[in-house]
Amino acid sequence: MKARIAAAIARQDEAPGPLDALMTVEAALVTVAGAIREAAGEGGLPLEDAALAVVAAMQCEDEAHYHLLEALGAIPVADRFAIPAGVLESSDAAIDGLLALKEVALGGQMALARLIAAADPPDAAFAESLFALGAAEGGHRVLLRAIRGADLPNDRAFLAWRFADPRDALSALAETGLLDDADRAVRFPGPLPVSCRGVSGLVPETTEDAELWS
Hints:
By secondary structure, the protein is mainly α. 55% of the residues lie in helices and 2% in strands. It is built from 7 helices and 2 strands. It has a two-stranded antiparallel ribbon. α3 runs antiparallel to α5 and α4 runs antiparallel to α5. The longest helix is centred in the middle third of the chain and has 28 residues, at 91-118.
């Protein structure tokens, strides 16, 4: 799959490229989730066990997304993130912070899907993998909204349009303060070992894989 990705998608002759931008967003998600897990473990965040299990699984899955983009040649813009103080002040703020980042990630992935479709030639395996990735991201969004007590946590038939270019996700990430140069910055993937207990499917399964296995 990597060899077939058009250069226009991988870099667009500029750095950072679309994949770099989305890899950075995934790195931020993993790191923020790790900081939340640490704060909850130290008693600073009263997250219920079920919510903490969701955050831990999400961190594992987002790290898998990060490594997929890494395998495709992406380079993150940052590997240390300044966790905004407010994110760790309450369980609601922590979940809201993750949910905001998840919306940025989904918007960037939607913009990348359009780039894949417009590439010459289009990359079917990459498009299939991105759809599978986005499906997991959408599931995270629903779970996070449910934790926050939304009456309809699954509240959209279609994802809202967010960005014309996947790299616009970097600007949205910067607006959160996570890319600030601060002494309190936390290094990816966060302060605790990533827990993948109960999680499987950490690599995308494409039609080509299914045909090979059969």
